[in-house]
Predict the 3D structure of the following.
Amino acid sequence: MYDVAIIGGGPGGLSAGIYAARANLKTVIIERGLYGGQMQNTLDIENYPGFDNIEGPELSEHMYNQAMKLGVEWKYGDVTSVKLEGQPKVLTFGEESLEAKSIIIASGATPRPLGVPGEAEFTGRGVSYCATCDGALYRGADVAVVGGGDSAIKEALLLTRYASTVTVIHRRDALRAAGILRDRALANPKIRFKWDSVVERVEGDARVGGVLIRNVKDNSNEVLAVKGVFIYIGVDPVTDFLEGSGILDEDGYIPTGHDMATSIPGVFAAGDVRATSIRQIISAASEGATAALHAYDYVESLPTV
């Protein structure tokens, strides 16, 4: 029996583990991949306090080692089912199950990939899914944004603070973004558009050097020379295992209060899986800490047997 079981070993889950362990809670983290989550795919992190520049895998290792030194247990596995109501809570992953008095869900969200050659190979080396995180790395460079919705255009506008040019590649001939965003983008001299176009391949050597794009109307191809490619065609929360739990909104995210508590007592959420997440490492870490402290209060409130 654990005091707290944390689903996900990214910055939210690791921070929750550190705070829970320091509160003398028996703590376990269940992670299906590498510790650090999406941080592992980020080459340079320049906006995490205390590090003016650190590679994602290195920051991941720092967080993981700190949690392990404090006695957090680590289990690899893909959570497939949960029992969240009442006591104890039960998690099943692989052929193993465990019981816990409280649960912190920090399973994150995954950017929807284009699925084209070169995308996976250059992720963290020119392919990014977060301009807020990585935009400053492209000062004076030419970059591309793939997508035409609100997120894509917001990030394109943000990138104009750093990049020389921002080319928006959109499969339609008009933006889907809200009117005010669309107007700002169309009026911005740094933003260019490739209408009716899709990315067929990401190219480069050690880092991104360009993208091959195809016009969907005439099937003509063109290589666009860019140093960075920012992809915004959607984000999917990792919450399949929570279907039927009653804590998900219509988009599959988890609404919480300011204390990171869900609608089920003893169940908390932190990081990108939350409905109002801003998808930053620092916010995920702070939410993990908040969730752990409130999980401590919940565990302490339970009757002793």
The longest helix spans residues 281-301. The chain has a mean pLDDT of 94.
